[in-house]
Design goal:
single chain; mainly alpha; Arc Repressor Mutant, subunit A; Four Helix Bundle (Hemerythrin (Met), subunit A); 2 domains; two-stranded antiparallel ribbon; 3% strand
Length: 231
């Protein structure tokens, strides 16, 4: 029986919850591939954007993983418990140690992205750049900042590096950063990260691995200096 067909009103069904039901009640095992986006859109009666957002949420939760050109796959039950494990890890770390981890890992990911990024990955990266500049609040900016850095990780075309980035980012979210004082409702037009992000994107798009590495390292050092004065 089609699990999604049980829904009384597919248009009102939360896409993320429906997808979780599909996985948990649909007898999918670790490594199984889910139906295509076209089939899920038809069954759920939702838009492609809504579906992709729900898939992105489940991927960040550790329930699924996606491979461009191959499809969406179910993670093992152990992986689906990742958020609890990462929250525990986050409680053992300081913000400075998180930033040191980012400095050790993200420049190397940017270097790989400059070698391997697909056209789709580059498009996602530039879309995040446009959206962060258009953000009407700090919260919206920070969401797009996350999307920009994740687009770079996806551009590495390396599932292990993407998984490492996602775990690092999840731990970063769980760490108590303290109160950050904002003097405006949103970033100013000359916010430092805008130019830094654009420089990184240009290096990746131009296939300049060494430049991408150096610019990502400089960007994270800049962020560190703003947050901690030094690192």
């Amino acid at each position: 029986m089609n699990i999604l067909a049980r829904s009384k009103n597919p248009e009102e069904t939360d896409a993320k919850s429906a997808l979780r039901r599909l996985i948990t009640e649909g007898q999918y095992e670790a490594g199984d591939r889910l139906p295509s986006e076209r089939d899920l859109i038809r069954e759920l009666g939702i838009s492609r954007n809504t579906l992709r957002k729900a898939l992105g949420d489940l991927e960040r939760d550790g329930m699924i993983w996606r491979h461009v050109g191959k499809g969406t796959f179910v993670n093992s039950p152990q992986e689906s418990k990742t958020p609890d494990r990462l929250a525990f890890l986050g409680r053992q770390l300081t913000p400075v140690k998180i930033m040191r981890a980012r400095l050790a890992i993200e420049p190397a990911i940017a270097k790989e992205a400059a070698i391997n990024a697909s056209g789709e990955a580059l498009s996602k990266m530039y879309l995040a750049l446009d959206r962060e500049r258009a953000a009407s609040s700090w919260k919206m900016y920070e969401e797009q900042d996350d999307e920009f850095h994740r687009a770079i990780a996806r551009g590495s075309d390396n599932l292990l590096l993407l998984s490492i980035f996602d775990e690092l980012n999840a731990v970063r979210r769980s760490v108590a950063w303290g109160k950050v004082t904002r003097t405006s409702e949103k970033p100013s037009n000359d916010h430092t990260s805008f130019a830094e992000h654009e420089a990184i994107a240009e290096a990746i798009a131009a296939r300049k691995p060494s430049d991408a590495y150096d610019l990502m390292h400089q960007h994270l050092r800049s962020v560190s200096a703003r947050l901690f004065e030094e690192i």
